[in-house]
Amino acid sequence: MGRRQQIALAIFAAFVVIILYVFYLMLKPYLSYLIWGALLALIANPLNARLRGRVSNDNLRALIVSVTVVAVIIVPIALLTLGLLSEAAGMYTSFREASAAGKFDFVLKPEVYRWNERLTEHLSAYIDVSKIDIEGWISGNLRNLTSFLAAKVTSVVGNLSMAIVSFVFIIFSAFFFIRDGDRIAAYVWNLLPMSEDLKARLAAHQREVVEASIYGGLLIAAVQGGLGAVIFLILGLPSPIFWGVVMAFLSIIPLVGSWLVYIPAAGILAMTGSWVRGIILLVLGSVVVSQADNFLRPVIIGKRARIPTLILLFSILGGLKLFGFLGLLLGPIIASMVLTLISFYRNPAVEPGAGAEESPSGGAPGRSQPAP
User: Fold this and answer.
1) Which pLDDT score, from 0 to 100, does residue 128 have?
2) CA 28 to chain centre
């Protein structure tokens, strides 16, 4: 290759890089809409596949699936979010009223109980116990949470037009991913610089991970959160929707789980004199909520998402930091893709993901299940 050809090739490569970078900058403000649309299309893929043989018109089929997604997924999530905001906003007031009535004195004001004397005497050698204000700490954090939620609600209401536009963009993106998903997948498939066998194995493994992460993980989290909310409601505990959502979120993260909510809650009930409700909550939480995870996870997920616990944990946390709520789904998917590509590099003949350890789930302490 002559010098002029090398210069021409370098100029062309620079031009391609610049064009791609400008194209990225153009799409950057809307990437979240595209990702959400793609995930919704992925979630709706089973319904889309069922209708493909019955509805020949691609536009009509995509419209039916998009409307179903809005009715079955978006609307319930929106209603749940409104209920969550309402309950969370009232937590500060409820806490202040209960505290004023002396219901939490055992926890908030331990100085009035004799059991605290030795503890205070021991801790005073290391810290200034007089500055410990449990009630002020809890009250301040609840007040900050209430202010944060109020600001968010005000922001959403004040920018209602932008919220509607964002919603329309997401559904619009989902419509085209549903309609043209096969063609997009085929196009990407042809671009991959792999043999057909490796492509097929990569696609099969990623399909398993997506099904395990989205359908399995979110379904199990929803079941645990729903059971927790019902138990809180039956026992007359405050903010059942809020704590149900918290339990659902915690159950997704490996090494933690819903027990981080119901065990402290049971302890607080016992220390405030509600021994019976505390024991009932502990038993139902351990037997019903956590065991629902241990029972459903092998049935729904099995060993399909073979990601080591440590990598899964940090992929979820890193995904949350990088993508926000999307990271709950994108983190494990990206991590699995990296592990699969590494397994191809090490030995193309080995089944991707083989030999990875099974990871503990967010169920009861001490139990181990495959990672979501």
Assistant:
1) 58
2) 23
pLDDT for 134: 56
Scored b (16 or more CB within 10 A) or e, 165-188 reads eeeebbbebbbbbbbebeeeeeee
Among 9-23, 163-177, 273-287, 292-306, which stretch is predicted with the lowest mean pLDDT? 292-306
Domain boundaries, the chain: 33-191
Would you give the DSSP letter of residue 223? Answer: H
Residue 353 and residue 303: Cα distance in Å, rounded?
A: 10
- Three-class secondary structure of residue 305 per DSSP: coil
Q: Angle at which helices 75-100 and 240-252 pack, to 10 degrees?
A: 120
Q: Annotate 74-104 with DSSP letters as a single string.
A: IHHHHHHHHHHHHHHHHHHHHHHHHHHTTTT
What is the Cβ-side half-sphere exposure of residue 287, based on CA atoms within 13 angstroms? 7
- Percentage helix, strand, coil, to 5, in the chain? 80, 0, 20
In one-letter notation, the amino acid at residue 31 is: L
Average pLDDT of the chain, as a whole number: 75
- Taking the whole predicted model, whether its pTM rises above 0.85 is answered as no
CA distance 34 to 323: 13
| pLDDT at 305 exceeding the cut of 70 | no
pLDDT attached to residue 65: 92
Label residue 19 by pLDDT band (50, 70, 90): very high
Nearest to 274, CA basis, from 40, 106, 55:
106
Given a contact cutoff of 8 angstroms between Cβ atoms, the answer to whether 225 and 250 are in contact is no
Spatial CA neighbour of 258 closest among 236, 210, 234, 226: 226
The per-residue DSSP string of 44-70 comes to: THHHHHHHHTT---HHHHHHHHHHHHI
